[in-house]
Amino acid sequence: MDARAxxxxxxxxxxxxxxxxxxxxxxxxxxxRIFPGPPSHHLLPGRGMVSDDTEHACFTARALLLAGxxxxxxxxxxxxxxxxxxxxxxxxxxxxxxxxxxxxxxxFPPHRSGVFSAGNGPAMRSAVIGVAWxxxxxxxxxxxxxxxxxxxxxxxxYHGALAVALAAHHADSFTSAQAYLTMLEEALAREAAAxxxxxxxxxxxxxxxxxxxxxFASAIGSRGGISGYxxxxxxxxxxxxxxxPRDFESGLAEIVRAGxxxxxxxxxxxxxAGAAVGKEGIPAEWLRAIVEWPRSVGWIxxxxxxxxxxxxxxxxxVPAVPVRNLLFMLVVLAHGFRRLVPPY
Length: 344
Known about the structure:
Layout: H1 3-20, H2 28-34, H3 52-67, H4 71-87, H5 95-105, H6 121-124, H7 127-133, H8 137-149, H9 155-170, H10 177-187, H11 194-209, H12 213-219, H13 230-243, H14 248-258, H15 262-277, H16 284-288, H17 297-309, H18 320-338
Helix pairs in contact: 1-3, 1-7, 1-14, 1-15, 1-17, 3-4, 3-7, 3-17, 4-5, 4-8, 7-8, 7-9, 8-9, 9-10, 9-13, 9-15, 10-11, 11-13, 12-13, 13-14, 13-15, 14-15
């Protein structure tokens, strides 16, 4: 496994998440008024923090590391991490993920804990699976399916998550949109995925025309920015990635400026593009501006290196997590109050 890709994938996810978080839920117009100028960290003055998007990607990487090639063990490790994450009182959690984790806490096994939803939770943790298992399509599908079904059972959630995993695997050797689409069609050949594949083709066509992602989002019914629905989020991310396959900064900036579910869309793009460009292709100032503890940027980098090397998993000070989550919640609440005042 390539350490450059695993580290770049996880760090790219963190940067996309933290940069997009202050813009989450804003329209493109309001975001431009509140945060004029190029996208940068705004959750704290000139600094950012990560949310569940990065945390889930890291839990997935750790589960991959601990499980080796055992899909069942992977599911157990990931489900356990999500339960412990829930016990740490995270500030933000999607409704479907919440319901699924509650089921897991009540004893439902990983393959039965998911709920019927096509939210984009599985997509935000699947890029690292693509980096780890993209060379083995059947194994890749098995890992992505297990990761998805822990929280989401709608087939569309799996289709989008698999598309992200394949993009992350294909990112470093990207040649053309058609090559990626052919790979995606082959991977979904036995799935009822016509709707998702049609949107993936529309994303490629839009990218070829050089359309802005905001215009593409509106064309596929995601008005007011990129929504948190799998059939909006992933096609929009693919549209940007196909235009900026190795330009991390330009691609992420466009996603953030489009508005909507910017932290998750940014995290997904960051995971894909980061796998291609590695740590050195991610703007250093964006990485330095992330303020996190105990799962710091340095810890995330060590986790990526450990995944590539086969272990051991880096430790962190677990008792600090609830304290960090409380501080994060206060920061998010303060940021929410900021949105109540002009400019509108």
